[in-house]
Amino acid sequence: MSDSRRQLGNRGEELAAKEYEALGWQVFHRNWHPKGLELRGELDLIVAKGSLLAVVEVKTLRRSGSFGTPRDQVTNAKQRQIKKLTEALLVSFPELRSYFVRFDVAAILWSKGGKPELTIMEDAFR
Hints:
5 strands, 36% strand
């Protein structure tokens, strides 16, 4: 991944985390990687509010639209990977097992030099 894409992704993750916090969510983890397991990948954002734990996939794209929408980037294969990583998260942090888990997508379209548009899709997949 190029530095500019990584920077864009980091900016999107920061924007999504701040939005969840503004909505009263507590951020538990950002960019969580399983340690000591043979799983690859990461969970972008893990937030909690009340008895609900949301695992958030953050997708940030430039406004050009040439790659579809951010939501289009969360393919069935990506959803399966997120679910496996979530299972590993719950094994690693047993205290999180009492929460109801949902999967959100934070979709961000960012115009160069413009203001980002953030859409949170709650319970985006199961």
